[in-house]
Amino acid sequence: MESTPLLREGVEEVIGMDDQVLLFDADSGVYHRVGPLAAAVVRKFDGRLTHSQIADLISADYPNSSPLDVARIDELVEGLHEKSLLAGDTAQRRKRGGLDRLLPRFLVFKKFSSVLAPAASLVRKISHPILAAITCLVAIAGYIFGISTLFSVESRVLTTPEASQLASSVLLALIIHLLGVFLHESWHGIIAGACGQPIRGLGFALMFWVIPVAYVDRTDAYRLRNRSGRVAIALAGMVSDGWVMGATALVATSTTGLAHATALVLLTYQLLLLIANLNPLAPSDTVAAIEAATGSIDIRGRSMAIFRATIFRTPLPSYLRNLSLHRRVLLFIYGLLSIAFAAWAICFVVYTLWSGLIQGVR
């Protein structure tokens, strides 16, 4: 007997990124993209129509297209069941798998968007393409100035301070750097708010369950129809970092003593942060910007699903079965490289901690 599908309570249709139809699950906070035909089918889910009846109605609505095969509806319903989006399914929180398990997230300040609201309102009022371009150019100049300053004076300065001064500079630089990271995440939230989609909160993640990383939950950026807004949100933190790095380089070139040494150490931290944010194999701002610019969704998650299905010879999730072979191969390679990077990073962290422990014992 055919089922009579109906969306589960708490699941709503949203017209979001690139005017695409998204199904938003309020219980998990996750967005699911569906194609135009699938969206038309889902709109027929009233809890009374069977798959065959829905196929007939869709074929009547689109007389110039090929008749809709009931098997396509069966596959769609199966996929929605997998995501627990239909009536009768049990609402579930999103389960993290694959490499996401190495990055547990903890949301600690859910009302952070209200703190950023005044700044977001101001940015919305003064925003202009020319101003945005100038802001980005200054950030790029800041990166260039900071990197050139670091490599031009680091070798001859960091060897001269006394041990006590060097320890103080490292500690001060770390404290200032943490403030810079907070500013980085705040700008993600400010630009999201300026675009009309406040963040869900501020939290931290533990990369490889060891390295703390701050983040803001900007999932609702999927509701933005234009790509430029989503790209701006993704890159806002890196633009902020460029300004901060330029200011740090200015301090390094105009001071001496502890302030000079602290600025140089801080430039080192900022360079490492830039490298991390440019890394295309980790959940970085660069990956988020690429997804926003290309209209892609969850490149890493899809690559991991294809990698697991290929290695363990299990069926692909329904939402990936219609991908072309070329795209599957590209996602598989990306997943393989991401796993290789994660393995290297874990080994590096373990080796560093072990070396530090051995040196401490000695």
Describe the model:
The protein is built from eleven helices and six strands. By secondary structure, the chain is mainly α. It has a three-stranded antiparallel sheet. A three-stranded antiparallel sheet has the order 4-5-6. A hairpin with a 3-residue loop joins β5 and β6. The chain is elongated, with a radius of gyration of 25 Å.
What share of the residues lie within helices? 55-70%
The number of helices is 11
Question: How far from one another are the termini?
Answer: 73 Å
Low-confidence stretches: none
Order of helices and strands: EEEHHHEHHHEEHHHHH
Beta-strand content bin? 5-15%
Shape: elongated
Whole-number average pLDDT?
87
Spatial strand order of the main sheet: 1-2-3
Using the CA coordinates, give the radius of gyration: 25 Å
State the total count of DSSP E strands: 6
Largest sheet: 3 strands, antiparallel
SS-based class: mainly alpha
